Amino acid sequence: xxxxxxxxxxxxxxxxxxxxxxxxxxxxxxxxxxxxxxxxxxxxxxxxxxxxxxxxxxxxxxxxxxxxxxxxxxxxxxxxxxxxxxxxxxxxxxxxxxxxxxxxxxxxxxxxxxxxxxxxxxxxxxxxxxxxxxxxxxxxxxxxxxxxxxxxxxxxxxxxxxxxxxxxxxxxxxxxxxxxxxxxxxxxxxxxxxxxxxxxxxxxxxxxxxxxxxxxxxxxxxxxxxxxxxxxxxxxxxxxxxxxxxxxxxxxxxxxxxxxxxxxxxxxxxxxxxxxxxxxxxxxxxxxxxxxxxxxxxxxxxxxxxxxxxxxxxxxxxxxxxxxxxxxxxxxxxxxxxxxxxxxxxxxxxxx
Length: 352
Description:
The protein is built from 14 helices and eleven strands. The chain is an alpha/beta fold. The chain has two domains: 22-34 and 41-236, P-loop containing nucleotide triphosphate hydrolases (Rossmann fold), CATH 3.40.50.300; 261-345, no CATH class. Helix content is 34%, strand content 19%. The chain starts with 21 loop residues before the first strand and ends in a 7-residue tail after the last helix. It has helices at residues 68-75, 97-106, 114-117, 124-136, 142-152, 171-183, 201-218, 229-235, 253-258, 263-270, 303-306, 309-312, 316-321, 339-345, and strands at residues 22-33, 40-52, 57-61, 83-88, 91-92, 107-110, 189-193, 221-226, 238-243, 246-252, 335-336.
């Protein structure tokens, strides 16, 4: 896989007393639909522990519908979890208007579609200044903060862009305006949902390089939700692989993407152009959060179980009947919610 060269050495994640800047603990989100006896519950997020350390970039990867966007919304305070907690710098997130207003100054969203997220009737200056006005009203240094944010986002000299409208900008420039709108409040954490998915391949590397530079220069932390494992390789310190509402593999980017343990992670990696060999075609239907299987939630589509490898390892029955459990979300050992992977590594559920 290719890498993005930044010319700067990334700081080691973590710091201070080791408290994560952002943490999900036992987060579950259940959506219900229908009426009366026909009501159905969809477990969009079904038990997630995940930490983001100061100065760390965590990539949350998985297929569409696996729960990445919902988990991101929970971490932003846009969605309240059905159970579990979100913590910021060790303190549980409060959901009063006052608490959320203060929180959203420090944890900012970078949206997927810059064209859709920018008002076509507003200039670049007005779009970037909007966050300042929402959170603090018009301030004497507003113009200075807007130009500084644009400059940090790579739009230089910023004066060239202040009076432009979105239609006058390229896709990459529009995404930089969106990032500047987040930076203007000087947050500690960015939560980005597919931040380069709508951009041409030639522009993606520039935006990824920008995010790395912001981490190196400002100490920003980030959670980046993506289906693109190549993006994760280029930008992340750690990778959390999500399937049907739960993290099924977690470790450093080198561990997860160079030595994947979970059959689902292996299948995702097999379709990359650099992978070589035949891609793994998953059997069965795409996952339905209203019908989470018993045992390992991946077992109906698992090629290891279907091929008999799990049986030869003596774990086929466990795959069908025993839930591998929720992985611990902190930095540490490469962990996998897979009975077969644990049997191969000779680890127990508590240590895998």
